[in-house]
Write a structure and sequence with these properties.
GO terms for molecular function: ATP binding; glutamine synthetase activity; metal ion binding. This protein has 472 residues and is of the alpha+beta class. It has 2 domains: 98 residues, Ubiquitin-like (UB roll) (Roll); 351 residues, Glutamine synthetase/guanido kinase, catalytic domain (Creatine Kinase, Chain A, domain 2). The chain is built from 15 helices and 18 strands. A hairpin with a 7-residue loop joins strand 5 and strand 6. Helix 5 crosses helix 6 and helix 6 runs antiparallel to helix 10. The longest helix is centred in the middle third of the chain and has 21 residues. The chain is globular.
Length: 472
């Protein structure tokens, strides 16, 4: 939004903004914020930063937690959810004493990944297009204690409300794809979300109802460069949740909130650019993809099991990655096949559009780490010329679910649990360390954190288990 501090300061004065909100990501991708009065938005603040405790958000140890936030002036946007006129900035973390970029800050990791890309000479930029799937519920209750475990989610569109809804326009299970009003009761809500996004400078391609009958939605944007894709994702999640809250509803990006219904993913469209041209385009290649694109795909699929520990870092992620819901469970690529881990869109066949999408990820990821890790896997694929076909990753353009068990043995599975993904990352992470993009200690801490989460969930009995085994 701004190129210089003077531009930002003049905008604040001319528009009488009272508060400046500084937003930043923790290690797990959650946004936090600290707010300062506009009077404190000074050149000294831009030089010295605003102090915070990095240990409280997983960025540092307790004994050396002092850090500072420095706002990225280009990221400024008017916050529509504050009572008083507020201008927000996305920040990166810096060392408190030296004011150097903190190595483990997620935004700084993305910047290093793209620097590494340029240093290899492969390309000078990368373009990304995450897709945003989410559910909207009008009532959410959760209870967990020593003697109780229960939740209840309700949607005005839910078919379970048929006996009491009284209007007869409910969406059947799995029947929500591009539903139209009056069945689509969320069209105006999504439109409000999109208007807010465009007001904040985040362009929107379209929005629609997704497959999940009880309240599943999707908003899609055009493609961005890698850092903008990360920042836009944080803004989009913030806007979607707050617009829903403002309308008395609740939005969730949880991958699998409903048993037996479609899950919510975050598919990543991606391409590399060099000299202003799409490096992935070749009109004679498979799906109009170049040799570099195929090697990149080879890197993604070879490191796919390890990548899932970063792109799918929750126990709930693997309740979505099951057969029968257009969620990929196997490591292969294909033209137009939505059950493939990598889908090459048939409509993306022009020099400016040729690309593919990696379909396993979901929005529980830290968006910055997920972008950086996928890019690093793709770079490794190109540098080592990893041929996806020679490595057994396809392309498989047939319906693999119609194959025999013997035929399916040739396809390599993706992890079926968070523990399997963590084990894969523990064994395969050298590609992330190239160019100093990720750090060995950081990866080990990441695995430790995820395994603690896995054990916390795995050690708890569920209501279904009580119903299933109480009478043994």
């Amino acid at each position: 939004m701004f190129r210089t501090f003077d531009e930002a300061r003049n905008f604040i004065r001319e528009n009488q903004y009272r508060m400046i909100d500084l937003k930043f990501s923790d290690m797990w991708g959650n946004w936090h914020h600290v707010t300062i009065p506009a009077s404190q938005f000074t050149e000294e603040m831009m030089r010295d930063g605003v102090g915070f405790d990095g240990s409280s958000v997983g960025l540092k140890s307790v004994k050396s937690g002092d850090m500072v936030l420095l706002p990225d002036l280009a990221s400024g946007f008017v916050d529509p959810f504050c009572q008083f006129p507020t201008l927000s900035f996305i920040c990166s973390a810096y060392e408190a004493d030296t004011k150097r970029p903190f190595a483990f800050d997620p935004r700084n990791i993305v910047a290093r990944a793209e620097e590494h890309l340029r240093a290899t000479g492969i390309a000078d930029g990368s373009i990304w297009g995450p897709e945003y799937e989410f559910y909207v519920f009008n009532d959410v209750s959760v209870e967990n204690d020593v003697n109780v475990a229960a939740y209840r989610l309700d949607s005005v569109e839910g078919a379970w409300n048929a006996p009491t809804a009284g209007h007869g326009h409910l969406i059947p299970f799995h029947g929500g794809y591009h539903a139209i009003p009056p069945k689509d009761a969320l069209a105006n809500l999504r439109a409000e979300m999109c208007i807010e996004l465009e007001n904040l400078g985040v362009p929107v391609k379209y929005h629609h109802h997704e497959v999940g009958g009880p309240g599943q939605c999707e908003i899609e944007t055009p493609l961005f460069d890698i850092l903008k894709a990360g920042d836009a994702t944080q803004i989009i999640k913030y806007v979607i949740k707050n617009v829903a809250q403002r309308n008395g509803q609740s939005a969730t990006f949880m991958p699998k909130p409903l048993f037996g219904e479609a899950g919510s993913g975050m598919h990543f469209h991606q391409m590399l650019m060099k000299g202003g041209k799409n490096l992935f385009y070749d009109p004679k290649g498979y799906g109009c993809l170049s040799q570099e694109a195929l090697w990149y795909i080879g890197g993604i699929l070879k490191h796919g099991p390890a990548l899932l520990a970063i792109t799918n870092p929750s126990t709930n992620s693997y309740r979505r990655l099951i057969p029968g819901f257009e969620a990929p469970v196997n490591a292969f690529f294909s033209l137009g096949n939505r059950s493939a881990a990598i889908r090459v869109p048939k409509y993306a066949d022009q020099p400016e559009t040729a690309r593919f999408e990696f379909r396993p990820p979901d929005a529980t990821c830290n968006i910055y780490l997920a972008l950086a890790a996928q890019l690093m896997a793709g770079i490794d694929g190109i540098l080592n010329r990893i041929d996806p076909t020679a490595n057994g990753f396809g392309p498989f353009d047939a319906n693999i679910f119609s194959w025999t068990d013997e035929q399916r043995k040739a396809i390599k599975p993706l992890p079926a649990s968070l523990k399997e993904a963590c084990d894969a990352l523990r064994d395969d992470h050298d590609f992330l360390l190239a160019g100093g993009v990720f750090d060995e200690a950081q990866i080990q801490d990441w695995i430790k954190h995820l395994m603690a989460d896995f054990n916390a969930v795995n050690n708890r009995p569920t209501p279904y288990e009580v119903a299933r085994y109480y009478d043994v």
